[in-house]
Design brief:
The radius of gyration is 15 Å and the shape is flat. The protein has 4 helices and no strands. 81% of the residues lie in helices and 0% in strands. By secondary structure, it is mainly alpha-helical. The chain starts with a helix and ends with a helix. The chain has one domain. It holds the Pfam family Multi_Drug_Res. InterPro entries: EmrE-like, Small_drug/metabolite_transptr, Small_multidrug_res. It is a multi-pass membrane protein. One of its GO terms (cellular component) is plasma membrane.
């Protein structure tokens, strides 16, 4: 159940961050509402996962790392942003760090 909550927190955060880009500095009120609701849901779900005894270092590493990788992919695939070799390398390093933190956490 903890991992499901964390996955939902990640999806909410990615949705909110994508909406943040689409809100054009909060000029588009509909997207701005999605931003606020998405971030509130993400933090509430992350908090619930932590309450169920997930280690904060593991939870935050997975939450931020997966979110970063997802947003970079969404930016490149749907928002016309560039995905250069150094960016890909950085994302790979983030994912590797998340894996290492997860492997060393107690379960």
């Amino acid at each position: 159940m903890t991992w499901v909550l964390l996955a939902a927190a990640i999806v909410s955060e990615v949705l909110a961050t994508t909406a943040l880009k689409l809100s054009d500095g909060f000029a588009h009120k509909g997207w701005a509402v999605v931003v606020v609701i998405g971030y509130l849901a993400s933090f509430a779900l992350l908090g619930r996962a932590l309450k169920l005894q997930m280690e904060i270092g593991v939870a935050y590493a997975v939450w931020s790392g997966a979110g970063t990788a997802a947003i970079a992919a969404i930016g490149a695939l749907f928002l016309g942003e560039t995905l250069t070799l150094p960016k890909v390398g950085g994302i790979v390093l983030i994912i590797a760090g998340v894996v290492l933190v997860n492997l060393t956490g107690s379960h």
